[in-house]
Amino acid sequence: MAHCDVSASAFYPTTVFYITPHNSFHRHVRVYQVHRSVGDAACSTVDDLLRSSVKSSKSIDGKEVPALTLLQGGIFWGNGQVYNGAFVGEEESKHNVVGAWKPCRIVHGTNIFTFGPPDDSEEAKRIKSAKGGILSQYRHPITLRRTTIITSRSEFFVKDSVKYVWRFDDKMNDMRMTLYAQSGGTEEIVAKAYRPWHIENTGGCVALDENKIDALTVVLTTVGMWRKLRLRTHR
Asked: Is 7 helix (H, G, I), strand (E, B) or coil?
């Protein structure tokens, strides 16, 4: 666990992921799990942890095996696939598919993430056989959408009957954002993301509490939020 003094926000991240800088022209987006000790000695807040994790992770791309690879669907963002580990080719990696992404094309659009293998894959056939032909019990699509239609930068999704909301920490800044879980009229911080790049690329680190939400959902919705940010700022 990352030992940071974050008692004021009651958020204690258990792990950090580094997402490589990317835009719509990048075919591959690689996601690395940062060693939990990175930045621990120097950090006093979660923001310190994220900044130090970004700084120490810039050199790992291409040198280590990623935890996940997002294969984008072309310049105009056709549907993408999500793979466990590195993507080495469609045939070689077809058994490592863990989800799909239908990205938004416009600012007011939605990002739709589907968890589980493609319908025509061998893994899907195995699941169907094990579950008596009911693949839908395994697949869990979620939709990331605006909290209001016109003005809000915040976006929400519902997973396992819990509503989660991504909000930017500063109205004038898009570098930091926080994911809240809403329940019974209260909110709880479950993840925080930080991106240091100010040009056309988006990428950075996201810290999360895996006791509160799964890493795959956090990583994918983080990338979805950055996709919407690029559309909004014409990047």
From this structure: coil
Residue 98 is inside which H or E element, if any? strand 97-102
How far CA 166 is from CA of 95, 124, 181, 190, in Å, comes to 31, 31, 9, 10
pTM of the model: 0.82
Quick: pLDDT tens for 28-38.
899 999 865 44
CA distance 154 to 37: 31
Q: Specify the pLDDT at position 208.
A: 92
The whole-angstrom separation of Cα 170 and Cα 155 is: 15
- 166-202 residues labelled b (16+ CB within 10 A) or e (exposed): bbbeeeeebbbbbbbbeeeeeebbbbbbbbebeeebb
Give alpha helix (H) positions in the chain.
46-57, 90-93, 122-130, 215-233
Whether the predicted pLDDT of 218 surpasses 60 = yes
What does the alpha-carbon distance between residue 27 and residue 50 come to, in Å, rounded to a whole number? 25
For residues 194 and 174, is the Cβ–Cβ distance under 8 A? Answer: no
Interatomic CA distance for residues 58 and 61, integer angstroms: 7
Beta bridge partners of 29: 70
